[in-house]
Amino acid sequence: MTLTQRFNPSRALLPLILAALAAVGMNAPVSAESFTFSGGPDGSTFQSFSEGIASRLSSSMEGVDLSSQSSAGSVENLRRVDARDADFGIVYAGDIYLGMQGKLDNDPRRYRNVRAVAYLYGAPAHLIVLEGSGITDVAQLAGKKVAVGEVGSGAAASARRFFEGVGLWDKIEPQYVGNNQGAAALGEGRLDALWVFAGFPNESVNQAANSNRIRLLQLNEAAEKGTLFHDHPYYATVIIPAGTYPGVDCDVVTIQDSALWVAGPHMDKDRVYQLMGSIYSPEGLAYLHQVHDAARTMTMASGLNGVVNKVHEGAARFWTENGLTLTQIQQ
Q1: CA-CA distance, 78 to 92, in Å (whole number)?
Q2: Could you tell me which residues come within 8 angstroms of residue 147 by beta carbon, excluding any fewer than 6 positions away?
Q3: Would you put residue 323 in left (φ > 0), alpha (ψ -120 to 50) or beta?
Q4: Which of 44, 185, 251, 295 has CB atoms 3.0–4.6 Å from 191's, for a disulfide?
Q5: Within 13 Å, how many C-alpha atoms sit on residue 120's CB side?
Q6: Cross-strand partners of 37
Q7: Are 146 and 194 in contact (CB under 8 A)?
Q8: Separation CA 96–CA 79 (nearest Å)
Q9: Beta partners for 195?
C-alpha cells in the first residue's frame, strides 16, 4: 500500500468541511430554474411589463431566473408560448380568442397550448394625427398612410380589425412600422396617422406629443356604426382622460382589448402559483406600479378581466383562493 492510498487528505477532510458548512448555513447554492417571458418592441407597454415582471421575480424569488425577450408583440407571443419557445408572454384577449379558432389574419392554425395567468391592463387604441393635418374624423384617413405596427404584432392585427369594421382597410395605406419609428415618421411628415394599441400613458404617444401638436381621433362612435363590436365581442369602450398627453385637452372615447399574462401548459402549476404570489403581494404590485402606470389596474378583483380562454392550473388555484370564480370557459 502506498502513502497516497493510506491517507488521502481531500477525502479525509471532505466530510468535516461539509459538516462545518452545514452548521453555519452555508450549503451549496441551489441552481436557478431559467424561464423566458416574451414581451414586445422596444418602448412598448408590453416590453415594460415583461421586463418589470422578469426583474421582480428574478430578484424576489430564490431559484428563479426569468429573462425578458423582445418580440413583435401579441401574435408572436401567442405563437412562441404555444410552441414552448417561451414560457410566459403577454397576449391580447382577442388574439387568443381568434387564435384558438384558427381565425388569425392569414393564419388558419389553431393555437390551443396557451393558458391565461392574469389580466394586466386594458389596451386602448390611440389613433394619432398632427393637429395641423386637418384630419378630425376616421373617415378622412381614406387614401392616407397609417402606421399600424410591426408585422405579426397585436397592434397590426387590431388595426386591421378596426379599419375593416369601419370599412376603411382597403382604402388606407397601412405601414408596418413600430411605435417609435411611427412617431418619428409622423412628425417628419412621412405618415398621415399613427395607430398605437397599448396602455396609457404610452411612451411613443408622448414622444409624438412632445415633438408636435397632435390630435387623438375619437374611435368608439365609428366602431359602433360599423361591425367591430359584432364581429369581435372582446372589444370594449374606454375613455383616455383629457390631459393624459400633452396638448390633448379633451376626453378621447376609444376601444380597448385586454392584455393578458399567459403561460404554456408545460409550466409547473406549483411554480406558477408561487410566481403569482410574489407579483400580487403588496411589494410586487408596488414595484410594477413604478414600472408603468398601467399596472395600477392590476388588482385581485380584476385578475380575470377579459379572459376568454382556459386559465393555467396554478393560476386557477391562486384566483379561487383569493375569492374569484372561474367561468366555464376559463376552467
Answers
A1: 9
A2: 175, 176, 177, 181, 182, 185, 186, 191, 193, 194, 195
A3: left
A4: 185
A5: 33
A6: 68, 88
A7: yes
A8: 10
A9: 127
Give the DSSP letter string of 174-222.
Answer: EE---HHHHHHHHHTTS-SEEEEES-SS-HHHHHHHHHS-EEEPP-HHH
What is the pTM (predicted TM-score) of this model?
0.71
Report d(CA 235, CA 123) in Å as an integer: 10
**How far apart (Å, rounded) are the C-alpha atoms in residues 149 and 128?**
13
Residue at 3: amino acid letter: L
Which residues lie below 8 Å from residue 54, measured CB to CB, with a gap of 6+?
A: 37, 66, 67, 68
Beta bridge partners of 196: 126
CA 209 to chain CA centroid, nearest Å: 23
Cβ neighbours for 124, distance < 8 A, ≥ 6 positions apart: 197, 198, 199, 200, 238, 240, 254, 255, 256
Question: pLDDT truncated to tens, each residue of the chain (331 aa)?
Answer: 443 344 444 445 545 544 554 444 444 455 789 999 999 988 888 999 999 999 999 999 999 999 999 999 999 999 999 999 999 999 989 899 999 999 987 899 999 999 999 999 988 999 999 999 999 999 999 999 999 999 878 789 899 999 999 999 999 999 999 899 999 999 999 999 999 988 888 889 999 999 999 999 999 999 999 999 888 888 888 899 999 999 999 999 999 999 999 999 999 999 999 999 999 999 999 999 999 988 988 999 999 988 989 999 999 999 999 999 999 989 9
302 grid coordinates: 380584476
Q: Output DSSP code: residue 302.
A: T
SS3 label, residue 27: coil
Residue carrying C-alpha cell 502506498: 2
For the record, the C-alpha cell of 317 comes out as 388555484
Instruction: Measure the CA–CA gap between 267 and 174, rounded to whole angstroms.
Output: 38
Q: Cα–Cα distance between 235 and 247 in angstroms, integer?
A: 27
Cell digits for 33? 430554474
Q: Are 118 and 300 in contact (CB under 8 A)?
A: no
